[in-house]
Design goal:
Order of helices and strands: HHHEEHEEH
Strand order of the largest sheet: 1-2
Shape: globular
Largest sheet: 2 strands, antiparallel
Strand content: 5-15%
Structural class: mainly alpha
Oligomer: single chain
Number of strands: 4
Number of domains: 2
Number of helices: 5
Length: 227
């Protein structure tokens, strides 16, 4: 009987160990998948900011910048370089929020230079455009109504705010998940660090249950098309 008891205990320990190993493997697989999404978001944003800076460089080539504009330009360049170096070193999806903050500072500095060159008032230091943070600081707030939730106010750049007011779809920041392009806030747990420092309430309300084609802003359907 003793050997039977030993065998039962050994089998139980083995079963527990196997389950624990499978659970740990699943957790690690999910963590790596979320990290890949986070890196994709951050890397694409770094690329876009670099392209925006290149265009600005061409625009100001023959336009003398004053001291304030030069400092802001350098701030934008430094932010881009810092974020570019940080992306390959991301070890956890949560770390993308730091890169996002750096890029936000760079976009704001870029917007300030553009305003000075164009002779426009300087932008307010606001949160980024909710629909696509790549658009830079928001210009105003608009009503956002995903199906199944009440209307909330979210920050939007001037162009997206105008689109929403005109009943058009805003230019959404989208990511590819399982072969499907989705608004970044529908990308699963990995998107949360991407916007948590700026849009926590609004992002959480745009839950993964709000799928592409289910509803939209002020009754617009199929926002996944974007652009």
């Amino acid at each position: 009987m003793e050997w039977v008891l030993v065998a039962v205990v050994a089998a139980g320990v083995g079963l527990f160990g196997a389950r624990h190993w499978r659970r740990a493997r699943t957790v690690e697989r999910d963590r790596l998948a979320e990290l890949e999404v986070a890196r994709q978001l951050a890397d694409e944003d770094v690329t876009v900011l670099g392209e925006q800076l290149a265009r600005l460089d061409a625009e100001v080539a023959d336009h003398p910048l004053d001291e304030a504009a030069r400092l802001e330009y350098q701030t934008a360049l430094d932010a881009h370089e810092s974020a570019r170096r940080a992306v390959p070193r991301l070890a956890d999806a949560q770390e993308v929020s730091q890169v996002s903050d750096t890029l936000t500072a760079g976009r704001f500095a870029l917007a300030c230079v553009q305003a000075r060159v164009a002779g426009r008032p300087l932008p307010e230091r606001r949160t980024p455009c909710f629909f696509n943070p790549q658009h830079g600081p928001a210009a105003e707030d608009v009503a956002f109504t995903p199906r199944g939730h009440g209307t909330r106010i979210v920050p939007a750049c001037a162009q997206d705010a105008a689109r929403v007011r005109n009943g058009e779809r805003p230019d959404l920041r989208r990511v590819r998940v399982s072969g499907q392009l989705l608004p970044y806030w529908e990308a699963g747990a990995a998107y949360l660090p991407y916007g948590q420092n700026h849009f926590t309430e609004a992002v959480l309300l745009a839950s993964p249950q709000w799928r592409v084609g289910d509803g939209g802003i002020s009754g617009i359907g199929g926002l996944g098309g974007g652009g």
